[in-house]
Amino acid sequence: MKTATKIHTKTATKTERPKLYKVILLNDDYTPREFVVLVLKAVFRMNESQSSRVMLTAHQKGSCVVAVFARDVAETKAKEATDLGKEKGYPLFFSTEPEE
Ligand code: TYC
């Protein structure tokens, strides 16, 4: 007699949430405050009061989280914003880091 063995394969579909990345604005001594505000508005779609608050926090504390995005979006926006400063010869810098 033949024994048929049927293998049941269980697939656990665990959907991992992609890690989010923070875009961080770093303070420097040279970039004009108004220019920082302009860049925040242009790249991160912030209004005047939101961008002023973020700029002032970075100015006073050394850095400020601007927003969180999927990794590629965070990196692209950080580069775009940093490049706008670079075009004007400012050392303005946006970095990215993964959320815990
Ligand atoms: N510290 C700059 C100044 O006094 C303004 C500034 C604020 C620059 C925030 C960068 O992330 C920054 N002109």
Structure description:
The chain has a single domain (29-98), classed as Ribosomal Protein L30, Chain: A. The chain contains three helices and three strands; from the N terminus they run E-H-H-E-H-E. It has helices spanning 33-44, 48-61, 71-87; strands at residues 20-26, 63-70, 93-98. Helix 1 crosses helix 2. The chain is elongated. The protein binds L-tyrosinamide. The site of L-tyrosinamide (TYC) has 13 residues, from strand 1, helix 1 and helix 2. Involved in the modulation of the specificity of the ClpAP-mediated ATP-dependent protein degradation.
The ordered string of helix (H) and strand (E) elements is EHHEHE
Bound ligands, named by name, code or SMILES: L-tyrosinamide
The domain count comes to 1
What's the total number of strands?
3
Share of residues in helices: 40-55%
Query: What strand line-up does the widest sheet have?
Result: 2-1-3
The second-level CATH architecture is 2-Layer Sandwich
Mean pLDDT level: 92
User: How many helical elements?
Assistant: 3
Q: CATH class, anyone?
A: Alpha Beta
Strand proportion: 15-25%
Give the N-terminus to C-terminus distance in angstroms.
58 Å
Instruction: Report low-confidence residues grouped into runs of 5 or more.
Output: none
Q: What do we call the CATH topology? A: Ribosomal Protein L30, Chain: A
Radius of gyration: 22 Å
Largest sheet: 3 strands, antiparallel
The coarse overall form would be elongated
Summing up helix and strand content along with how strands pair, one would put the structural category as alpha+beta
Q: What's the CATH H-level superfamily name?
A: Ribosomal protein L7/L12, C-terminal domain/Adaptor protein ClpS
